[in-house]
Amino acid sequence: MTPMQRWLTLxxxxxxxxxxxxxxxxEDVASATSDFSVMDTQGRIIVYADTSALCSAAREAAxxxxxxxxxxxxxxxxxxxLSAVNRxxxxxxxxxxxxxxxxxxxxxxxxxxxxxxxNPLVGSLVGLWKRxxxxxxxxxxxxxxxxxxxxxxxxxxxxxxxxxxxGRATCRxxxxxxxxxxGGMAKGWAAQEAMAKIRRCRGVRAALVNLGGDGVCWSEGDxxxxxxxxxxxxxxxxxxxxxxxxxxxxAGRRVLLPxxxxxxxxxxxxxxxYRYWEIGGRRYSHILDPRTGQPVDSAxxxxxxxxxxxxxxxxxxxxxxxxxxxxxxxxLERLPGAEGLxxxxxxxxxxxxxxxxxxxxxxxxxxxxxxxxxxEVLP
Length: 379
Ligand code: ADP
Ligand code: MG
Known about the structure:
- By secondary structure, the protein is α+β, with helices and mostly antiparallel strands.
- It is built from 8 helices and 15 strands.
- The chain folds into 2 domains: 30-72 and 185-366, Roll (T-fold); 81-173, ApbE-like superfamily (T-fold, Orthogonal Bundle).
- 29% of the residues lie in helices and 25% in strands.
- Strands 1-2-6-7-10-13-14-15 form an 8-stranded antiparallel beta sheet, covered by helices on one side.
- The structure holds adenosine-5'-diphosphate and magnesium ion.
């Protein structure tokens, strides 16, 4: 059987590698790949299953789930449940689906986990900076001050999630002006939900859900975090998924570091180079420091986080951008299951800061390993 290499490049903006580049699919496993637009970005789902019909069924289930979540959590769509919650800020609880309630409850938990560096209430600040960009001016101190007053995560109330699995939940923002923005975790969270759907389908052997560079992967035979069993078990679909950390200086066309992930994990990169506001010819990061209300302006160029859960990986990557190298590394080292790589701009170029366990996924020694073409086998 021809060994299959699955190639995946995780870019902050887009995925540009394909599955099974240059190799034939093995006879005993079918695969299906779908590219689609979702959450303002490019999504890709790859499924390996016993038959093509099972592949398609799993892929459809994942796409449907992703699109449903995108519709619920889009704060720029007035028809979304998140918008309904935001509109009612300062008023009574709003009935929402359990999915929306779970996403908001997770965002609360992740805010606490990150010591407030990831804060889904930055919606008011994001709105302010967007408005200022349109008006080509900087926000005033008063404006920043009032946005900062509505960032208390305890004022987000989620109810009705406990107990019976049926029925509606509610969400309430206790103070006027509070605005939830789940952009810092939504892609990873949705990718994880989509993966859960895939894993419930029959005959599925391995899968990847990548939403704009936030990837969740899984292969059957996962026996533990070290992946040893996975590799030994054979079967082409059990090979590790391959990701590439993008070189932030390359405008998305160069892989700095290849990563291999066996079993189940999420790999998420947050960078200050991809999305920004431009005011008076200066670029301001779209990631805001909830302590100051200012766009982050640290030497951290990108943060890649690997974690068993997609929403957690995404929120942590955003938090790392806010925290700066030292505190970000301390956070990742403190959290069980989290590994990461922070890239810091320094005079000599990019300085990598990997967590102690990061070597399991990639050899940071090889940083600057050069351009990687599709299908090329890396050392
Ligand atoms: P990307 O969406 O580019 O992958 P992130 O996951 O880092 O990047 O999310 C950035 C988005 O998160 C911003 O566009 C904004 O909507 C929101 N955001 C900005 N700052 C924060 C923060 N400190 N905590 C939570 N969300 C944030
Ligand atoms: Mg994020």
